[in-house]
Amino acid sequence: MKRKTYSQLQLIGFIIAFFLSIFFCIKTYRLAQQFIEQTGITPHVIYQLLFDRGVSLQATDTRVNILILGIAGGTHEGPDLTDTMIVASVSKEKPALPSTAGKPAGKPSVSLLSIPRDIWSETLKDRINSAYHYGEAKRTGGGKTLAKAVVEDVTGLVIHYVVVVDFSQFEQLIDVVGGIDVVVPKAFIDTEYPIAGKENDECGGDTTFACRYETVQFAEGTTHMDGKTALKYVRSRHAEGDEGTDFARGKRQQDVIVALKEKIIQMKPWFHPNIAKQLIQVADLATDTDMTIGEQLTMGKFLLKVQSSAISKIFIEPLLINPPSWMYGRYVLVPETDYETIHTFIKKSLENQP
Predict the structure, then answer these.
(1) What architecture (CATH level 2) is domain 63-351?
(2) Quick one: average pLDDT of 40-69?
(3) 0.85 cut: is pTM over it?
(4) Distance of CA 235 to the CA centre of its chain
């Protein structure tokens, strides 16, 4: 009788274990399906990222062109105007020139091309920094599409992806890595740096509206910057002399991007899960993109391997002029000759990258 009871218990235990295994398999499958749907990461993508180059990326002539748009966000005036516009042209493999046929292709590289925000767009009948605003006003996601099209007209490059950076969150990303070291090439003082939230403050009747601004200054040389300081450094545009130009601001923005990349590499977040988790969470809040998760991870994996010596900077300001204000009713920049000249200059600059 005891044997029979024991056998029955075994049978019942087996049946329970069997149904539990079925339940957990189904649950795991559903969670996996949900994960794949939300992120686009399949087992095949994971394998490619770990053991291969990753997923396939859109590209033209071995180059992946990513438009980086920086918006003020938060309570700033014009929160969706793109004060920062940079094209990161990423070359996984630099083709050998005809004169070097038979030799191996060049090393992977990145070129950062700054686009002045005040360039006039005949398509928009406005400055190009308003493209994202107009696109988003039409439909959610339209800002990236319109900004991409307008920048293609200016640069002559095919823009494959767009990354929108919310500056109101960006400073947290820098704070997560403990700040960055930036070489300030020339000291400057900006006495009209806008204070967030005070754009419309009446300042108690002060006709100069001094309460709306604060003074920021930077000394020449290497400066350790936290997120708040770095944000002021890249957004400052009212310093006297050359440092108050879009050219100088574009250079500062590029320098901060490179410094942040170097700091992340130094931290080796892939060996520190907690740091990696914080970086991912903050980056997710600070950015919006039309890249899939697989494409983002593939590009991230590649960029971490690019040496600083393989990062070049391109500026088109010398090819632009400021026409009389009566022509456009405001301060704008237009080509000194034509856009074909600018396109040729950019193409040659990319080809000649060391």
Answers:
(1) 3-Layer(aba) Sandwich (3.40)
(2) 73
(3) no
(4) 15
